[in-house]
Amino acid sequence: MLELRPCCEHxxxxxxxxxxxxxxxxxxxxxxxxxxxxxxxxxxxxxGGGFAPRPIRPAQDxxxxxxxxxxxxGTQVRHxxxxxxxxxxxxxxxxxxxxxxx
Length: 102
Hints:
This protein is α+β, with helices and mostly antiparallel strands.
């Protein structure tokens, strides 16, 4: 089950379950759109992969109990500001490689 983390790992801004601003990597690292695009340049500081918009879990039960009420969003905050110097080196080493080639 996809973990819906409550905030951006870098800037700690709130990312509620229905947020269109949430971005995740394949390991579910979660950042806001601003940090993912502007600060991190679409390079996850934890794995080097790219980001995609986080899916929105349905708020209401429409099929077989598959909704936010049965599988709620996570509450554990993972505020781990990115070391921007280290990230710059990582991003530079990946420059020119598309996320699907990293």
